[in-house]
Amino acid sequence: MTSVLALCFDAPMQSWGSRSHGVDRDTALEPTKSGVVGLLAAALGVERDQDEEVARLAALRFGVRVDREGVLERDYHVTQNVPTTSGGGHRTVVSERFYLADALFLVLLEGPHDELERIAGALADPRYRVYFGRKAFVPARPLLPPGTGPRPGTIEQAIAEHPRLGTTPQGVIAEFRTVVDCVPTHPRAEARHDHPVSFAQGKRKHRTRTVVVDTVTPAAGGTPCT
Fold first, then answer.
1. Which of 30, 41, 49, 102 is the 20 to 30 A CA-CA neighbour of 196?
2. C-alpha R_g of the chain
3. Partners of 104 in the beta sheet?
4. Integer Cα distance of 40 and 174 in angstroms
């Protein structure tokens, strides 16, 4: 039987790039698998060229419940004195960088209990600092509350049963968007090119995974990730 580890991703700003090239830096509307695996690798002290460890983390089943959709914002950056590609002289580079403001996500990992226990221990005492896509985008509250850890079950069960992370106006029935790993043969499978293969410098590589996008009305009450 598998276990599930539930994490709270809450911050004033988050950025989850999926198609970033050159000076234009995009963000997905929810955490990417590559971004979350990179965060877990940092907590565990996995180095960029340790492809086997990256594959071990990426093998976990992954899901996200969007408890609060973020507001898409854009930063306009001007960087001076950037060396030219020819090696002679410098130039000024203009770039656009997108991020999500005030977003709140329940991030779920499904897999062997021992592996999730290893991750929970690393998040409690990370080897390297963790952040949400950019070094300045740090968590507003613990990803994993003290004394909590993986529980038996599946992502689907946790998505429906885990208490809401934020508040919902009284009388409002909240439906939250969900994005969960699925088999390619699922009738509603969608492609996401964010399954990490390698984070090695100059050799970053990803492959495609499939997800199903749905909605859920989560359980009220209980203790949220605080």
1. 102
2. 18
3. 10, 68
4. 30
Residue located via tokens 């086997």:
52
- For 157-195, letters b (16+ CB in 10 Å) and e give ebbeebebbeeeeeeeebebebbbbbeeeeeeeeebebb
Both structure tokens of 215: 């909605």
Residue range 65-114, pLDDT digits in tens:
999 999 998 876 666 556 666 666 666 666 678 889 999 999 999 999 99
Q: Which residue has the higher pLDDT, 45 or 18?
A: 45
**H helices of 108-189, where?**
113-124, 155-161
Q: What is the pLDDT of residues 155-207, one digit of tens each?
A: 999 999 999 998 766 656 689 999 999 999 999 999 999 999 999 988 889 99
pLDDT of 146 above 90: no
Residue 68: HSE in the Cβ half-sphere, 13 Å Cα cutoff: 20
Strands 13-14 and 90-101: antiparallel
Look up residue 218 and give its two tokens: 């989560």
Q: Which fold has domain 3-70+101-216?
A: Alpha-Beta Plaits (3.30.70)
Q: 89, exposed or middle or buried, with CB in 10 Å at 0-12, 13-18, 19+? A: exposed
